[in-house]
Amino acid sequence: MNKVSKWTYVPLAVFGVLFIAPFLIMLGGSFLPMKVPSGNPFLWLTEEKFSLSNFLYIVVNAKFMKWIMNSMIITIIPVFSQMFFAAVLGYIFAKKEFPFKEVIFWTMMAVIMLPSQLLIIPRYIMFSDFGWINTYMPLIVPEIWGILGVFFVRQYMQTLPKDLEEAAHIDGANDFTVFFKIMLPMSKPVIATVGTFAFISNWNDLLTPLIFTTSEDMFPVTVGLASLLTKEGNFGVEMAGSVLSFIPTFIIFLFFQRYFVKGIALSGLK
User: Fold this and answer.
1) CA 134, CA 127: separation in Å to the nearest integer?
2) What's the pTM value of the predicted model, to 2 decimals?
């Protein structure tokens, strides 16, 4: 085996610094005194005194906790529903045979190629007719299931030995038993991957709630922070809010990391 040159790590270290720099700017800027206006993102490097006033201001004076609650509602419901439907549909497309299965599956995959921004106006007109504007419904209903999650689970379940399913049927198990007792427990890594993707995607979504919510009480944390920057014009306050909103996604990723990596590796993605 060829020995890797130490110079190989130089560009990797450079890219590592570039990737972590925005996070350091966010974290350091969150401790800037509130008197510091937005502007130079590296101003915190010259500050001698750090303060927690930005965090206290957001929690006490802003509607931050309400925004966090809204984000939890529009995120957690789609996470669990996407995990469930991805598991069910992935199992059907991976292990069952029915007419036009491949045509239906790849037609679903083709929908991914359609930019979601193109659907904003038709969705707005439809949801407006339903009376859903400025409610949770337009933020939850379209995210009940995700096509990409179905793809992940299908790819993963295709790698599971068919002998397990056949042995269970010989022992008298029906399709429901096979799915819930065998396929579902063995597919935990990829289902956790689907849940992680769904959480991060819905939690960080800015465009959709920006279009469909009109009052501060309905804002999720992404739209709330954007409106806060517009009103306050304070770099430190904005960075403090970003740090607080980053914590849930960081915890979710840490908790599901071992499943996440294994699920990606075994779902056919290289």
Assistant:
1) 10
2) 0.83
Span 48-86, pLDDT tens digits: 567 788 888 888 877 888 999 999 999 999 999 999 999
For the beta carbon of residue 236, count every other beta carbon within 10 angstroms.
28
Residue 202, Cβ density class (10 Å: 0-12 exposed, 13-18 middle, ≥19 buried): buried
Alpha-carbon torsion 144, 119, 231, 235, what sign? positive
Report the alpha-carbon angle 80-163-148, nearest 5. Answer: 30
CA distance 242 to 203: 12
Q: Which amino acid, 185?
A: P
Residue 181's CB is within 10 A of a number of other CB atoms, namely 12
For residue 167, pLDDT over 50 is answered with yes
- Cα distance between residue 13 and residue 10, in whole Å: 5
Question: Distance between CA 206 and CA 219 in Å, rounded?
Answer: 10
Reported as a pLDDT band with limits 50, 70 and 90, residue 265 is low
Q: What is the DSSP-derived secondary structure letter of residue 51?
A: -
Q: How far apart are CA 97 and CA 66, in angstroms?
A: 47
Tell me if 185 sits within 8 A of 157, measured CB to CB. no
Quickly list H helices, 112-234. 120-130, 137-140, 147-157, 162-170, 175-178, 184-186, 188-203, 207-212, 221-232
Please give the angle made by the CA atoms of 74, 77 and 79, to the nearest 5 degrees: 100
Amino acid at 172: G
What gap in Å lies between CA 84 and CA 150, rounded to an integer?
10
